[in-house]
Design a protein that fits this description.
Helix content is 67%, strand content 0%. It is built from two helices and no strands. This is AMP-binding enzyme family protein.
């Protein structure tokens, strides 16, 4: 998924909490 790629490219900038917010 796009979110997964973003998380891999910027792991330090995007925390899991941020990813959860994107999912919501």
């Amino acid at each position: 998924k796009i979110v997964d790629e973003i998380a891999k490219t910027s792991v330090g900038k995007v925390d899991k909490k941020e990813l959860r917010k994107l999912h919501l």
